[in-house]
Amino acid sequence: MSPALEVHDLTLRFANFVAVNKVSMTVETGSRQAIIGPNGAGKTSLVHALTGAIPSSAGTVSICGIDATRLSQAARVHHGLARTFQINQLFTGLTVLENVLMAILERDGRASIFWRSVAAERVAIDEAKALLELVGLGPQAGARVNALPYGMRRLIEIAIALATRPKVLILDEPAAGVPTTQSEAIFERIAALPRDLTLLFIEHDMNLVFRFAEKITVLVAGEVLTEGPPAAISADERVREVYLGRRGHHAAA
Ligand SMILES: Nc1ncnc2c1ncn2[C@@H]1O[C@H](COP(=O)(O)OP(=O)(O)OP(=O)(O)O)[C@@H](O)[C@H]1O
Ligand SMILES: [Mg+2]
């Protein structure tokens, strides 16, 4: 089986600045992989390049064996690649269910069209409820987003990303902005997602990374420093050095 993601020499330049420099990595189907690295290492930029949010400058990306390098972000979503964002993007005045429902309708190309039938509406609502159950927010479906704690809001974003029916889900700091006491619960929900869904996540909290990742890719100054299973990464002197701040600064292009 083709890997969920296969990346070769992926490069992303901003003007004269190289944010992602010849990154090659493989994410196996059904695996849970983490990308770690200091602030400014290029993690989010790499996600932009993977998803096509920003066109890459060089290199290739395959999604489940399909060359996606020249595909738009929407086409990559269509091929099964979804993402969540480091900063959340919800309609806080709407209910949890309405937020997920909008994502489903958008997927089906019906966002701006009046629903054709009550039956179709019912199907979409049931699907939204099922997605909320998957992230543990069934009981909160009818609550307004702005009435919920931030940790729950972050789970809504995952449900929204799942509405595109992804094979691969990229989570950019899914627990960012959430008190440490709630971040573990978020990761437990993520870990409980269906096993056939491939997960690639960015996270700064090493306890969470070592607990939930099967493989870790360490990004420093836009480049892959090393990758491997948690035990190897935690024992790696070079990785420790990065987190003590002696490395990790970018070179100009
Ligand atoms: N649109 C842009 N234009 C120019 N430079 C950018 C742009 N976006 C990001 N950068 C730069 O690219 C580098 C990598 O940024 P990026 O956001 O990818 O880092 P990160 O690893 O996600 O950091 P963090 O852990 O803080 O989220 C940073 O130096 C940043 O200033
Ligand atoms: Mg980032």
From TrEMBL:
Keyword Nucleotide-binding found: yes
InterPro entries, sorted: AAA+_ATPase, ABC_AA/LPS_Transport, ABC_transporter-like_ATP-bd, BCA_ABC_TP_C, P-loop_NTPase
Sorted UniProt keywords: ATP-binding, Nucleotide-binding, Transport
One annotated GO molecular function: ATP hydrolysis activity
Cellular component, GO annotation: plasma membrane
Domain ABC transporter: 5-246
Pfam families: ABC_tran, BCA_ABC_TP_C
Keyword match Nucleotide-binding: yes
Signal peptide: none
PANTHER family, alphabetized: ABC TRANSPORTER ATP-BINDING PROTEIN, CONSERVED COMPONENT OF ABC TRANSPORTER FOR NATURAL AMINO ACIDS-RELATED
Name the UniProt record assigns to this protein: ABC transporter ATP-binding protein
Native species: Phreatobacter stygius
